[in-house]
């Protein structure tokens, strides 16, 4: 998957407020799916769908503790966020340059 496709997938996954909140919770450390569901006030099936989207986007990874394979622990993966941050920084540079050029143009045009 190319960087643009990966960025599109990341942004699509983060478009949902429940998934963004899950990412916020996972930023504090790995958590079981059930704990995420409770903290977000979601049913287990709904949480499962959100976690599947986050997993498929590459934002989170799933593991199983040795003591119970039924338990799923989710943790953030940094790579998609690094690509998003880089894109945002590049966009900010572009817009800053455009705004500075516009400001210079207006100042030249002013009597």
From TrEMBL:
Keywords: DNA-binding. The keyword DNA-binding applies. InterPro entries: ArsR-like_HTH, HTH_ArsR_DNA-bd_dom, WH-like_DNA-bd_sf, WH_DNA-bd_sf. SMART domains: HTH_ARSR (SM00418). It comes from Phenylobacterium koreense. PROSITE patterns: HTH_ARSR_2. The keyword Iron does not apply. This is DNA-binding transcriptional ArsR family regulator. Residues 1-96 form the HTH arsR-type domain. It comes from the Bacteria. GO terms for molecular function: DNA binding. It holds the Pfam family HTH_5.
């Amino acid at each position: 998957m190319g960087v643009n496709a990966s960025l599109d997938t990341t942004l699509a996954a983060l478009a949902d407020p429940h998934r963004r909140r899950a990412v916020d919770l996972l930023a504090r450390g790995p958590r079981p799916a059930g704990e995420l569901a409770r903290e977000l006030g979601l049913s287990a099936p709904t949480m499962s769908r959100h976690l599947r989207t986050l997993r498929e986007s590459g934002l989170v990874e799933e593991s199983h503790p040795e003591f119970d394979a039924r338990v799923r622990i989710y943790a953030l993966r940094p790579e998609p966020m690094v690509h998003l941050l880089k894109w945002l920084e590049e966009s900010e540079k572009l817009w800053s340059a455009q705004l500075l050029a516009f400001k210079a143009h207006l100042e030249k045009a002013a009597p």
